[in-house]
Specification:
2 domains; Arc Repressor Mutant, subunit A; three-stranded mixed β-sheet; Dna Ligase, domain 1; two-stranded antiparallel ribbon; alpha+beta
């Protein structure tokens, strides 16, 4: 596995933010000053393909954007993305229990999943604030 300069630059740009970025956001980030040569879209897409194939980044299908992956997942691991609709931040988590439940559900439906990625949209704990977060964790009567 070879991390070329452009692959490293794309990965560094994704690690520099907690928000997903499109390929064109990355192009803008890689050439921040006027007069700097902007990388061609195909160059960035090829770097992203390599980073995706090797588990360095994930693609958020609902946003058509990419985010760096700080974890090394096994091929069958279920990855859950919690996407804040207010600040745009993304948290990543894995759950063996949820993976088992979804695997069972898919089996009884005769479904063969291609990818084990789940995206949740809502508000993060920071944006929700302490009052709303506490209310969500309190059981209803």
């Amino acid at each position: 596995m070879r991390l070329t300069p452009i692959r490293r630059q794309v990965l560094d740009a994704l690690y520099a933010t907690h928000r997903p970025m499109s390929a064109y956001d990355l192009i803008d980030r890689l050439a921040p000053h006027e007069g700097d040569k902007r990388p061609a879209p195909i160059t960035v897409y090829r770097a992203l393909d390599f980073l995706l194939d090797n588990g360095f980044v994930h693609k958020l299908e609902s946003r058509n954007a990419f985010i760096a992956c700080p974890f090394r997942h096994a091929p069958g691991d279920l990855v859950v993305f919690m996407i804040c609709e207010q600040c745009g931040g993304v948290d990543e988590a894995c759950s063996d229990e949820l993976r088992g439940a979804l695997t069972h559900l898919a089996q009884i439906q005769g479904f063969s999943p291609r990818a084990n990625i789940l995206e949740l949209a809502g508000r993060c704990a920071h944006c929700a604030g302490p009052t709303e977060t506490a209310a969500q964790s309190t059981p209803s009567s």
